[in-house]
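Good morning C.,

I know you're traveling, so I'll keep this short. The sequence:
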Amino acid sequence: MDPVIDAVAAVLGGDRGPPVAQLRDLGRQPYEPVWRAMQAFTDARDADTPDELWLVEHDPVFTLGQAGKDEHVLMPGDIPVIHVDRGGQVTYHGPGQIVLYPLLDLRRLKVGVREYVDRIEQAVIDTLAEWNIEGARKDGAPGVYVAGAKVMALGIRVRRGCTFHGLAFNIAMDLSPYQRINPCGYQGLQVTSVVDLGGPSGLDAVKPVLVDQLARQFGLTVETAEPLSF
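The tokens, ready to paste straight into the viewer:
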């Protein structure tokens, strides 16, 4: 094709290439400042704002979604409980867990909310397969499970077609805080972690695989960006 025609097509959107997402690894952070930053980013973005992926490891915290019932928080003890604006019930974040917040414009990606959830779950299932761990979905209970035990919890919010909140993937963590809650609102729900399933114990081993699988699901080109200051 004529290079001039190619250039005009690119300007008009005929050949823009895959969408770019900025990847920010925030390290270990308390929950609330990251949550507020997600809200601010989503409120401020427009149709031209690049998507972002935030990786973080949170200090111990229980978060309760919009429909969350306090009765599912059994014995919080010294772990704070924060009511937040995502879907779902109560879950736990803590050291040894990868939390990934996809800040995506679903309208631009032409992805519906149900499909968005399916693709995130598939990214985690494919990540687990890297270590020959068989992850699965469970009807009516978003997330990823291995032999019935939950290894990844999912709680999202979509505002003006843009996503925030995201997934919590247990890698190598103290699982005892889950005994203080009904995880995701289910009494007696078993939870597990990647290391207990024969996978790696280091978050740094899992992060690039997870990011690559998520990028593949959404057709994203990922570029590393500077972390945020809180």
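Safe travels,
E.
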